[in-house]
């Protein structure tokens, strides 16, 4: 209903509806899907968790979830 009531492209900020898919947004009439700063905060979350582990337990089990140098190089070309 919103898209039929406006005469402009319908943009959506996806992090406010995290369970919706690109397909669902498109079906609702979205012409642009933004993620705002969500990737930034997603990247910061494991950093915080690792820091908390090192401070609280003095352990480094978080290193098991790190990307390898070769994975990063492959992605960056």
Describe this structure in words.
There is one protein chain. This protein is 48% helix and 12% strand. By secondary structure, the chain is mainly alpha-helical. It folds into two domains: 2-34, no CATH class; 38-76, no CATH class. Helix 2 links the parallel strand 1 and strand 2. It is elongated and about 55 Å long. The model has no long low-confidence stretch (mean pLDDT 94).
Overall outline: elongated
Strand order of the largest sheet: 1-2
For the CA atoms, what is the radius of gyration?
19 Å
Structure summary, number of beta strands: 2
Give the overall pLDDT as a whole number: 94
Q: Low-confidence parts, pLDDT < 50 over ≥5 residues?
A: none
Helix/strand class: mainly alpha
Biggest sheet details: 2 strands, parallel
What share of residues is helical?
40-55%
Strand content: 5-15%
Fold topology:
Layout: H1 2-5, E1 10-13, H2 22-27, E2 30-34, H3 38-56, H4 69-76
Parallel strand pairs: 1-2
């Amino acid at each position: 209903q919103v898209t039929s009531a406006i005469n402009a492209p319908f943009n959506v900020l996806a992090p406010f509806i995290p369970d919706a898919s690109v397909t669902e947004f498109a079906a609702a009439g979205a012409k642009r899907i933004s993620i705002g700063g969500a990737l930034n905060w997603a990247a910061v979350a494991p950093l915080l968790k690792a820091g908390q582990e090192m401070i609280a337990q003095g352990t480094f089990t978080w290193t098991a979830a790190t990307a390898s140098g070769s994975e990063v190089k492959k992605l960056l070309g």
